[in-house]
Structure to design on (770 residues):
């Protein structure tokens, strides 16, 4: 544990950092191991793929060469051009495969072998084309070429064998490589596991002794304090955060204990002050308001001060109450005296009311008599109104008759005026006739003058002219006579109109007189009505007055009753005033118990 | 215009003493004049007369007679001043004498009457002939209890025209 002491004083972040470092280291080793494993597997996979591709290419070369050989044989037997094309195609495929194989070769010997094979194949292909190009007549050359081809084929066979063996060599080599890599992978795995274990162990120790144990100590301390053990302390000596927390907790506990002790002392002092205050308040309760409570520096000082202020307020109020009580006593005595005098006045008032009642009775009787007289007068006035109304109606009828006469005369006047207008119209026509006769006369004169100018020849015309003149003269005479008649008619019409106007004037005067009579009758009726109305009102008012007097009598009775009641109330008030005086004196005596100064 | 006026041209003259001859005449106060024969004469109601400024009182103005503008003279005021003015209240007629351009209108206040069987009278014995017309009266006749004078209206009207011109000249001077 001494070895771990340095770790205890490390700060928590550093401890967690160390733990994290160990864990990271373990994880890193595991990660490296995993990465190596993947790398090895990828390498193995790639080699297998290359080997597979190489194998397929080798097989492809072999197959293509065999196919080309077959096509060559077929051509030699069948001499078909298609065989040549097939041969070329197979050879081309073989050539492509050989070129692709070179990418997968690993040694120079293998590359040289493949180059040799490729060369042989090219030679083979050239010889075949030579063979194809030779004509059928060149059998000898064909034979030589064929034999050369066979020689090439035979020379190629060991090369092809070695070519085919390449893939097997490579396969064996790949297996050796895989085994070596497998042992490396195992060693790496064991190493990483070891590192991980070490990291975990370190982490455990760091967490256990650096974090968990101090936390447990602090937790235990808090539990004991909660249970009531105030002496317990954590006493952690480490200088990390948990140590500081434990130290702070211990300090807080120490301060708490000190505070409690101090509070206890203060409580004791307050208790002493309270006891003293209670003693003083007891003295106050004994009505000695001169007591002043001492004001301490503790919380009771404010209470004592408040009580002192309250005492002062009560003293002031009681002083005021005493003064008021004295005033109430004085006032009550005055009220009692006044109540006695008012009682006396009420008694006198009651006597006067009774006298007033008797006089009211007499007034009521008098008013009743007046009311009866008013009734009689009212009946007489109604008769006068009826008589006046009858007279007014007669006058109205007279006026109506006169108006009718006037209307009739007006109508006659209108008719006569129309007659005059007609005669004027006749006069106008007569004037027209006169004008006709005048013009006819003129015409006749002119005709006469023209006839006179004509001399003898105009004599016949003169006859006509004379006749016309005579007719015009007759017409003029007749018009004159008619005019004279019309004038006479107009004159007589005017005279008649004047006479009628005179009659109308007389009628109007008569109507005015009748109207005046009617107005006077109406005024008489109105006056009579006013008189009747006044008498009726007098009668009503008399009745009302009687009723009012009756009410007054009732009121007087009630006033008498209320005066009597007032007398009784005032008597009660006097006795109440005496009680008030007694109560004020009692109040004074009660206040006098308090010692105010 | 001196001496006894000559009779009108024979073509227009008629013998008033011939019983078959009918004449017409009109009176101006106590003066009785025959209406000229042989020339167109018309008797009319007085038309609307338009007065002329600076005209003598006997010249009433101009009137429209069937499209012809004629001068209108008051015979009573012309021959017998101071005669009452011929106003609308007094009955009067217009005697239109002659034809254009010599047509003229004469206002008369008595209605012309038919005359026949006139007797010739001594012109010199006729008294109280107005000086204004005397030079133009050339014959006198009696009929219907009156002495009728025959005169040359054309010459008389020419003298009236000269009189009008003198009157205006006197006013303008």
């Amino acid at each position: 544990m001494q070895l771990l002491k340095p770790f205890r004083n490390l700060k928590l972040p550093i401890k967690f950092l160390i733990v994290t470092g160990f864990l990271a280291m373990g994880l890193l080793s595991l990660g490296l191991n995993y990465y190596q494993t993947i790398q090895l597997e990828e390498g193995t996979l790639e080699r297998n793929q290359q080997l597979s591709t190489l194998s397929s290419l080798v097989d492809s070369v072999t197959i293509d060469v065999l196919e080309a050989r077959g096509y060559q044989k077929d051509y030699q037997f069948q001499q078909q051009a298609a065989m040549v094309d097939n041969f070329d195609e197979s050879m081309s495929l073989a050539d492509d495969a050989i070129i692709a194989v070179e990418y997968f070769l690993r040694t120079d010997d293998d590359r040289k072998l493949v180059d040799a094979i490729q060369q042989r194949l090219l030679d083979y292909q050239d010889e075949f084309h030579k063979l194809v190009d030779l004509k059928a007549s060149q059998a000898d050359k064909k034979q030589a070429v064929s034999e050369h081809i066979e020689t090439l084929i035979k020379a190629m066979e060991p090369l092809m064998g070695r070519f085919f063996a390449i893939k097997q060599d490579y396969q064996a080599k790949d297996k050796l490589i895989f085994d070596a890599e497998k042992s490396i992978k195992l060693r790496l795995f064991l190493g990483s596991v070891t590192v991980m274990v070490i990291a975990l162990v370190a982490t455990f120790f760091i967490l256990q002794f650096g974090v968990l144990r101090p936390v447990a100590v602090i937790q235990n301390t808090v539990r004991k304090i909660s249970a009531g053990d105030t002496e317990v302390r954590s006493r952690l000596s480490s200088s990390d955060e948990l140590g500081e927390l434990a130290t702070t907790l211990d300090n807080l506990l120490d301060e708490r204990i000190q505070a409690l002790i101090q509070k206890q002392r203060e409580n004791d002092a307050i208790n002493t002050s309270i006891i003293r205050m209670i003693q003083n308040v007891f003295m106050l309760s004994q009505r000695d308001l001169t007591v002043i409570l001492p004001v301490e520096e503790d919380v009771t000082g404010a209470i004592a001060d408040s009580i002192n202020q309250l005492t002062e307020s009560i003293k002031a109020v009681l002083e005021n109450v005493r003064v008021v009580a004295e005033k109430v006593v004085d006032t009550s005595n005055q009220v009692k005296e006044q109540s006695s005098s008012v009682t006396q006045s009420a008694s006198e008032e009651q006597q006067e009311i009774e006298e007033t009642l008797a006089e009211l009775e007499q007034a009521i009787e008098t008013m009743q008599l007046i009311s009866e007289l008013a009734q009689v007068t009212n009946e007489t006035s109604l008769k006068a109104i009826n008589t006046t109304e009858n007279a007014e109606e007669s006058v109205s009828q007279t006026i109506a008759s006169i108006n009718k006469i006037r209307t009739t005369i007006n109508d006659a006047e209108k008719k006569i005026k129309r007659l005059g207008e007609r005669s004027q119209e006749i006069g106008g026509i007569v004037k027209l006739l006169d004008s006709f006769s005048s013009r006819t006369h003129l015409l006749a004169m002119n005709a006469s003058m023209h006839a006179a100018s004509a001399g003898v020849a105009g004599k016949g015309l003169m006859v006509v002219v004379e006749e016309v003149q005579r007719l015009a003269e007759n017409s003029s005479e007749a018009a004159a006579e008619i005019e004279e008649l019309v004038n006479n008619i107009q004159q007589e019409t005017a005279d008649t109109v004047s006479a009628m106007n005179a009659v109308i004037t007389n009628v109007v005067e008569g109507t005015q007189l009748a109207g005046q009579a009617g107005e006077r009758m109406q005024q008489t009726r109105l006056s009579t009505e006013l008189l009747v109305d006044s008498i009726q009102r007098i009668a009503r008012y008399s009745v009302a007055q009687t009723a009012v007097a009756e009410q007054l009598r009732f009121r007087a009775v009630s006033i008498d009753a209320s005066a009597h009641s007032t007398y009784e109330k005032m008597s009660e008030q006097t006795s109440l005033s005496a009680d008030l005086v007694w109560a004020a004196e009692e109040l004074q005596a009660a206040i006098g118990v308090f010692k105010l100064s | 215009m001196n001496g006894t006026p000559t009779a009108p041209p024979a073509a227009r003259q008629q013998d008033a003493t011939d019983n078959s001859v009918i004449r017409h005449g009109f009176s101006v106060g106590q003066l009785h004049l025959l209406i000229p024969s042989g020339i167109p004469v018309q008797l009319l109601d007085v038309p609307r007369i338009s007065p002329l400024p600076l005209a003598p009182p006997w010249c009433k103005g101009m009137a429209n007679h069937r499209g012809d503008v004629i001068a209108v003279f008051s015979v009573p005021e012309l021959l017998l001043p101071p005669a009452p003015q011929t106003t609308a209240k007094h009955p009067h007629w217009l005697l239109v004498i002659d034809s254009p351009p010599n047509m003229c209108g004469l206002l008369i206040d008595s209605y012309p009457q038919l005359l026949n069987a006139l007797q010739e009278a001594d012109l010199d014995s006729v008294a109280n002939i107005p000086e204004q017309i005397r030079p133009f009266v050339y014959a006198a006749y009696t009929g219907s209890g009156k002495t009728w004078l025959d005169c040359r209206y054309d010459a008389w009207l020419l003298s009236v025209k000269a009189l009008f011109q003198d009157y205006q000249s006197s006013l303008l001077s």
